[in-house]
Amino acid sequence: MPEIPGKACGECSLCCKALEITELVKPAGDLCRHCADGGGCGIYAARPGVCREYECLWKGDRALTAQMRPDRTGAILMEDPESDEYRAVCDPSKPLAWRTPLVFKHLVAKARSGRLVVAKAGLRSWRIYASGEWGPCV
């Protein structure tokens, strides 16, 4: 993915905390042991394939403003290619970050465009509907 000016990770390393990385035996919610202070990866050159393949939607979408950077919202926006879900994966310390007005408005807009939208926090998940209603996934 080509870099967009002003869209660097900087101090954001929420993906290194919120996402599960089975190759590193790192469960979702635990900070990766290779995450450097101030952001960045201590094993970047030798990072596992799942980390190499991960593309942060915030970094690749010009429409997502600086305020939507994952560490600022507490939620990582991502596409799930296996289920075609549009997801907001929340920082475990902010499980309802998807409900903040800025993130929620974005998720409802995605639902209105016809996408299946799901917010996740740990083992809990919620479906967001085009109407703005939401409810737990079963």
Description:
It is built from five helices and five strands, in the order ααααββαβββ. It has helices at 15-18, 49-53, 57-60, 70-73, 101-112; strands at residues 75-80, 85-90, 116-121, 124-128, 134-136. It has 138 residues and is α+β, with helices and mostly antiparallel strands. Strand 4 and strand 5 form a beta hairpin. It has one domain (15-136). Strands 1-2-3-4-5 form a five-stranded mixed β-sheet.
Secondary-structure map:
Blueprint: H1 15-18, H2 49-53, H3 57-60, H4 70-73, E1 75-80, E2 85-90, H5 101-112, E3 116-121, E4 124-128, E5 134-136
Parallel strand pairs: 2-3
Antiparallel strand pairs: 1-2, 3-4, 4-5
InterPro entries: UPF0153_domain
List keywords for this structure.
five-stranded mixed beta sheet; 5 strands; 19% strand; 138 residues; alpha+beta
Query: How many DSSP helices?
Result: 5
What is the tally of beta strands? Answer: 5
Binned, the helix content reads: 10-25%
How large is the radius of gyration? 15 Å
What's this model, at a glance?
InterPro entries: UPF0153_domain. The chain is an alpha+beta fold and 138 residues long.
